[in-house]
Structure formats: C-alpha cells, structure tokens
C-alpha cells in the first residue's frame, strides 16, 4: 500500500497528463489526446498510476503497517460471529 496525494487526480488526463475540461455532468474530456471519461473513474486511474509509481520506485511512502483485510462474519444484529460454528466470537 502507498500513500498517494489525491490533488488534481480527477482533473488530469490519465493518458497524456494534460488538464481535462468538462464535457457534461461529471464527464471530462482531454482536448489534447481525446480521452474522455467519468470524473471518478479518471481519479481512480490517476491514483492507481501514482501508487504504482511510488511502489515501483521503492518510495518511502510505502506503508508496511497497513491494515490487513480479513473476513468478518456477523449475525443479524451486526455482532461478530465465529465463522465455523455460527457462534459469537
């Protein structure tokens, strides 16, 4: 996992890096290369690219103590349960 600065991720073209312009509701278009997409999707692409760049370069922003994903089973009340027996954990 890498810490990424989210500034300008939804307004920068993920293909050529130029500034995007509005092209409808939450849609942006690059007038340099023609790329077009949803603002949120564009931000995801740019954040992913930045994170991969940081990780590839072995940047100091790598978070070795990041939270780990794990399965959590809950009952109807939202209480955690033992996944094997269906009892409270």
From TrEMBL:
Could you tell me which Pfam families the record lists for this protein?
Cas12f1-like_TNB (PF07282)
At the top level, the lineage of the source is Archaea
Q: SUPFAM superfamilies, per this entry?
A: FdhE-like
Keywords, A to Z, come to: DNA-binding
Keyword field contains DNA-binding: yes
The segment(s) forming the Cas12f1-like TNB domain are 3-47
For this protein, the record's InterPro entries field holds: Cas12f1-like_TNB, FdhE-like_sf
GO MF, any single term: DNA binding
Name of the protein this chain belongs to: Transposase
